[in-house]
Write a structure and sequence with these properties.
The complex is a heterodimer of chains A (435) and B (379).
Chain A: E1 9-11, H1 36-41, E2 47-52, H2 54-66, E3 73-77, H3 80-85, H4 88-102, E4 109-113, H5 116-120, H6 125-135, E5 140-143, H7 157-164, E6 175-182, H8 193-200, E7 204-207, H9 214-218, E8 223-228, H10 231-243, E9 248-250, H11 257-271, H12 278-296, E10 300-304, H13 311-320, E11 324-329, H14 338-347, E12 352-354, E13 373-375, H15 377-383, E14 388-389, H16 399-415, H17 420-423
Parallel strand pairs in A: 2-3, 2-4, 4-5, 6-7, 6-8, 8-9, 10-11, 10-13, 11-12, 13-14
Antiparallel strand pairs in A: 1-12
Helix pairs in contact in A: 4-6, 7-10, 12-16, 13-14
Chain B: E1 4-5, H1 14-22, E2 28-31, H2 37-45, E3 55-58, H3 63-68, H4 72-85, E4 90-93, H5 96-100, H6 105-116, E5 120-123, H7 131-145, E6 154-161, H8 173-182, E7 187-192, H9 198-201, E8 207-212, H10 218-228, E9 232-234, H11 242-255, H12 261-264, E10 273-276, H13 279-288, E11 294-297, E12 310-312, H14 315-322, E13 328-331, E14 344-347, H15 351-354, H16 370-376
Parallel strand pairs in B: 2-3, 2-4, 4-5, 6-7, 6-8, 8-9, 10-11, 10-13, 11-12, 13-14
The chains are: A alpha/beta (435), B alpha/beta (379).
């Protein structure tokens, strides 16, 4: 029988499955994650069209406005009478066509986002796309969704978007010694293990972030091997690679030395490149962690799951190296994190696992009695600290070099205050923000 | 088509309107929605979210619960949260899918109220209307449920109705509005709903007159008129228009007749000057500038406020057409893409339109130098 500490925190020793019950949900004022608007905007020259009621529309249209991309975003409002009269099909089809006719120039690609209402009204979206393709033959329509009602028991809209947004890529001859890495909103850092390994074998790495034009984007299909590192992109990129008849390797972002070593071996074997010296890489990581700890000392550390999909692995790594991790903010434990959770239960039973979204977190005490270092913007807000590592969704961190880069970021965060109130509410870290 | 928008945004939705109106009253608002409503609201429509704890949540509605009509989860989760957080009241708010499947919110409210002992009511939004009806219904419900019958009216006291950051986002706006009224020798009884508690609002029946400063306040004004006979004046005391509004308040206290001083300015207009937005505030801005002009009202629930020089427009295309012969436009900066080249624009950021895009340059309408603004526009 689990002893409950309360609805918002459990000590690691007694974490159950699920970690927290699904209840009403609170939304903290931290918005640096990338949403579907940010993700789709990465396709150069693309135009996005959303079709929904005004309340749902508001969040996405202002996402585009804040990133100064209103000229690549249009929408069609569904009205109450469309729903009551059963004219959602017509409103959707005709509204999208009307938007396209109003644009100064037809875009090569349009990502369309219908919503929950279309599911529940049984709207035949396929026939809408057929009709639009007939009227606008030069436009490639990408069938995305903004249907969060489906995400409790299926994939959330962003994960499905990371599949359909690559549907325009067409099977083609692979370009020699070219690898395509997709599925993350952040390019790998310059000295990332994967980059170094590929460079040592004479391979060129292509990422979405390199693309300047829609044609560049289409040429992503030329990679002979596909890689994906971010778990939210795994399904979409593996399906895209399969459709393009390319091998695809999931090399997950991780803080676990063994996992990193396995991923690098996988890549080395697949491409026939001599592996990096794992022992030396780990020694460098240990030295970087020791140096970081010598500066940060016994300062309490809070970590969140927006920073990285494997916050528990990071907690474990830091605890092993003598850091004082006190809190981890997350709402669920991914299967890949179960080994780390098991380790924490045994070795750090007092570590607090705190919910981000349970309603009681609205009134949780956000004051801390001493200087706290947060790793991730949600942890920064929950602990009211100006000392935080501002990275989301793993950023460009990967592997051994990623751990060393994180050490640099921790030292910088520890030594230099940030304006938390100004930074963390901004949407889509790294995107243009007009606010 | 007036439902297709090429480049300008839409206004704040009805759900956010409810949340904004009730934010400071100590209740708990539960939006029956899968995801996104709360994030949209607190990101783009709520200036107070970072610093002030207000109990506004979503239910996290899942497909399976919507399909099978599992209302128990909403009830149980709401009761559970209420027992932990002790709100003064509970408000349920609707969104498109529960609207589609006909969720019986009135019944759910009765169940929650019986299980918690906390007043619980429903605001019938559906996510397909703008903030004016949403906030308007919410404030009207407060007027119906919580305002008590007064022992006696207090002379020279005023309630301010329809004050939310959606229309008055600049810091200090609510205080400046209070000062404007108080400097005229009147006393503010309650401000609906910034800076006062539910308990203060409950005494609103004691006020001699209500001042409706946005369309959001009009439904509550009508309820208070019906329940307590309190007359109301519609208008915002801005710049040179303040005297007119304050005189109207005094006259109304004497006569008991509602007054809408802006309508006295109404009439067909050929000046080429246009203001776009919420009709009470933008009409008052035009009056403060002492300019003729037309107010284009793109909002719902403003039927009683249009006519004369206040013209309803629906959608981007209608607004763009209406502005074809404009010489000057006073509007939020995000209207600029549909304003013809060469037309002079006075930018007044409006939270309910551009959200936080221009929050740092948001102008306090009560302290604005309207003479300087006229000069800036070369008028």
């Amino acid at each position: 029988m689990l002893k409950r500490l309360g609805p918002t925190a459990r000590i690691a020793a007694e974490a159950g499955d699920p970690l927290f019950p699904q209840k009403l949900e609170f939304n903290p004022p931290v918005h640096e994650n990338w949403n579907i608007v940010h993700i789709a905007m990465q396709i150069p020259e693309v135009h996005q069209i959303y079709v929904c009621g005004v309340n749902c529309m508001r969040g996405v249209v202002l996402t585009a406005a804040e990133m100064s991309a209103s000229d690549r975003f249009s929408f069609v409002l569904l009205r109450e009478e469309d729903v009551v009269d059963g004219t959602v099909w017509e409103a959707t089809r005709d509204g999208i066509a009307d938007v396209l006719r109003k644009l100064p120039k037809l875009p090569p690609c349009v990502v369309v986002f219908p919503v929950c209402t279309h599911h529940f009204m049984g709207v035949d979206m396929d026939s809408i796309y057929r009709s639009l393709e007939s009227e606008f033959p030069s436009v490639t329509f990408v069938p995305a969704w903004m249907d969060p009602i489906m995400q409790k028991h299926g994939l959330p809209p962003d994960q499905r978007l990371r599949k359909v947004m690559y549907d325009p890529l067409q099977p083609c001859e692979a370009k020699e010694k070219t690898v395509t890495l997709l599925g993350s909103e952040f390019a790998l850092e310059p000295d990332s293990d994967i980059r170094r390994l590929l460079a040592s074998g004479g391979y060129t790495l292509r990422e979405l972030q390199d693309c300047k034009s829609y044609d560049d984007f289409l040429r992503l299909a030329e990679g002979g091997t596909f890689l994906v590192t971010f778990p939210g992109g795994k399904l979409g990129i593996s399906q895209t690679a399969k459709r393009l008849n390319r091998p695809c390797y999931y090399l997950p972002v991780s803080f676990d030395y063994t996992c990193i070593a396995e991923s690098l071996h996988t890549l080395s074997d697949a491409l026939g490149i001599p592996p990096l010296d794992a022992a030396e890489e780990q020694r460098l990581c240990d030295a970087a962690l020791e140096h970081t700890r010598s500066i940060i000392g016994n300062t309490p550390i809070a970590i969140d799951s927006l920073f990285h999909p494997r916050p528990l692995e990071l907690a474990k790594l830091l605890l092993i190296h003598g850091f004082r991790v006190t809190e981890v903010y997350l709402d669920a434990v991914d299967e890949a994190e179960q080994p780390a959770l098991s380790w924490l239960k045994e070795h750090a039973p007092d570590l607090e696992l705190r919910s981000i979204i349970l309603p009681e977190q609205r009134v949780a005490d956000r004051k801390r009695p001493e200087k706290t270092l947060a790793i991730g913007p949600k942890a920064a807000w929950f602990t009211s600290t100006p000392y935080f590592v501002n990275v989301v969704q793993a950023g460009g961190l990967w592997g051994y070099a990623g751990i060393r880069s994180l050490c640099d970021k921790m030292i910088d965060a520890f030594q230099n205050e940030k304006d938390t109130r100004d930074i963390v509410p901004r949407k889509g870290l790294g995107c243009v923000s007009c606010i | 088509m007036n439902t297709s928008y090429r480049i300008i945004p839409c206004y704040t939705g009805d759900v956010s309107g409810v949340c904004s109106a009730l934010f400071e009253l100590g209740g708990m608002v539960v939006i029956h929605d899968p995801s996104g409503c709360n994030s949209t609201y607190n990101t783009h429509d709520e200036t107070r979210w970072y610093d002030h704890d207000s109990l506004i949540f979503i239910s996290g509605l899942a497909e399976i619960d919507a399909v099978f009509g599992n209302d128990d989860k909403l009830i149980d989760d709401t009761v559970d949260a209420a027992k932990n957080l002790h709100p003064k009241f509970i408000t349920l708010v609707n969104s498109p899918i529960p609207f589609l499947n006909g969720t019986d919110f009135e019944a759910i409210c009765r169940v929650i109220e019986s299980r918690t002992g906390i007043p619980t009511f429903y605001i019938p939004t559906n996510g397909m209307h703008d903030y004016v009806p949403g906030a308007g219904m919410a404030l009207a419900e407060i007027a119906r449920r919580f305002v008590t019958a007064p022992q006696a009216k207090k002379a020279n006291t005023v309630n301010l109705l329809g004050v939310t950051p959606l229309d008055f986002a600049a810091e200090g706006s609510a205080d400046a509005l209070r000062r404007a009224v108080e400097q005229a020798g009147l006393s503010v009884n309650a401000c609906w709903a910034m800076g006062d508690t539910l308990e203060t609002l409950a005494h609103s029946g004691e006020a001699a007159v209500n001042l409706v400063v946005s369309a959001l306040g009009l439904p509550a004004a009508k309820v208070l008129r019906e329940r307590f006979g309190t007359p109301y004046v519609i208008g915002v005391p801005l710049g040179g228009f303040s005297g007119t509004v304050l005189t109207a308040l005094r006259n109304t206290m004497e006569t008991g007749e509602n007054q809408f001083p802006l309508m006295e300015r109404a009439g067909s207009d050929t000046s080429g000057i246009f203001a776009i937005g919420e009709p009470v505030t933008m009409g008052s801005v035009l009056a403060a500038l002492n300019l003729p002009g037309t107010v284009l009202c793109p909002l719902e629930g403003c039927e009683d406020l249009t006519g004369g020089n206040v013209i309803p427009v629906v959608g981007e295309e209608e607004a763009e057409t209406a502005l074809q012969d404009a010489k000057v436009v006073i509007a939020d900066p995000l209207y600029r893409p549909i304003i013809p080249n060469g037309v002079k624009m006075i930018e007044l950021p409006h939270e309910a339109f551009s959200g936080r895009c221009f929050r740092k340059s948001m102008k306090n309408l009560f302290t604005l130098d309207y003479n300087a603004l006229r000069k800036e526009a070369s008028l």
